[in-house]
């Protein structure tokens, strides 16, 4: 599973992109974020407030109970500020 | 389908002319050009902004902009739609975005163009980081942008 | 104050750039370009239009457009307003009018530009005569234009 | 008093502009139109339906009871169709 981070989430976590293999119990985007939070203080800090974390799976916005599977491209980022 | 995500500037006059070229049933073209402001927005700090860097999510950006264009075409009778959005480092006064809609009817052109801007502000995966005398800072999303986008849901086709 | 009534075409890109040039507090420029359509509007006849001549009332035209601009500036916080309207003989696809508003806020720019178009459609003394296979005919005023102008009275500042 | 005609009003009346000296009883724009209608069948025809005649005095829109005076520039025209 490929995870992408953008904007201050990328800056706080310290990487733009990584390949991860979450354990079997990680079935949803919410599960995935909980698991990522356990990977270190930089993750815990960046993902502490889920109200400001947007999730896309395979480049579409999804909710926190959306299923995730190996092979998915999952992106985590703050609310967008373009335009 | 006319969606472009690019680092380069664009020629507004040429783009708008191309949108209506060869189709004399178009009565008008409504457009919006977004520019880099030198003042930070909304946080009251008033710190001057010397430059801004726009980060985006290649692939998803084009996909979301295309979805926004498709939604506009569903809602209004449009003869042409164009969205150009830049990324990279920009200076105050630089063009960031161009949204334009061509239609036989001016109300459709105005509404659809405004819709494009409101939706892309809250859906297109771009993030602004400003350079200020106090250092770099990420621009915070604005509640008023969410509200501007929300109002279009109440008017679904 | 930027009101121009002229026979010549105008350069949309240059005009819009000039409107925001040198003022980096402007967040965006909303504009509308009106074009000559090859189909007559509203009467259902569908006769093709080979050309159109715009007559106007020199002096009163400028006066009315200036009044419309002043009204827009009273209603919205605008950093720049431009109205260019052509007269004389024009062909399908030709530009007739450009209205543009620059503001720190996109809602103000969109609303004010739409207001300019709605008001000038019913207040600026221009008259269109179309050339069709059946001969020349004066374009009739449209009820929907009156309604579009009326709605702004209900929202007076 | 200078009278200007535009669009189909100009075409029907057959002139774009004329100097007139209406009689003393002509005090308002409405009076003026009534008097103009008496000047010939072209005037009578062009001004028959006042609902489609707009009036400007000295380049401002006015109603049918607006005063007119020698020296005024009075314009008569159909509803506008620019933009």
Automatic annotation (TrEMBL), chains A, D:
InterPro entries: Beta-grasp_dom_sf, MOCS2A, Mopterin_synth/thiamin_S_b, ThiS/MoaD-like. SUPFAM superfamilies: MoaD/ThiS (SSF54285). GO terms for biological process: Mo-molybdopterin cofactor biosynthetic process. One of its GO terms (molecular function) is nucleotide binding. Pfam families: ThiS (PF02597). GO terms for cellular component: molybdopterin adenylyltransferase complex. CDD domains: Ubl_MoaD (cd00754). Keywords: Nucleotide-binding. Belongs to the MoaD family. This is Molybdopterin synthase sulfur carrier subunit. It comes from Nitrospirillum viridazoti CBAmc. The gene is moaD.
UniProtKB/TrEMBL annotation, chains B, C:
Pathway: Cofactor biosynthesis; molybdopterin biosynthesis. It catalyses: 2 [molybdopterin-synthase sulfur-carrier protein]-C-terminal-Gly-aminoethanethioate + cyclic pyranopterin phosphate + H2O = molybdopterin + 2 [molybdopterin-synthase sulfur-carrier protein]-C-terminal Gly-Gly + 2 H(+). Belongs to the MoaE family. Pfam families: MoaE. Converts molybdopterin precursor Z into molybdopterin. This requires the incorporation of two sulfur atoms into precursor Z to generate a dithiolene group. The sulfur is provided by MoaD. GO terms for molecular function: molybdopterin synthase activity. Its EC number is 2.8.1.12. InterPro entries: MoaE_sf (IPR036563), Mopterin_biosynth_MoaE (IPR003448). The keyword Glycosyltransferase does not apply. Keywords: Molybdenum cofactor biosynthesis, Transferase. One of its GO terms (biological process) is Mo-molybdopterin cofactor biosynthetic process. It comes from the Bacteria. The lineage of its organism: Bacteria, Pseudomonadati, Pseudomonadota, Alphaproteobacteria, Rhodospirillales. This is Molybdopterin synthase catalytic subunit. Heterotetramer of 2 MoaD subunits and 2 MoaE subunits. Also stable as homodimer. The enzyme changes between these two forms during catalysis.
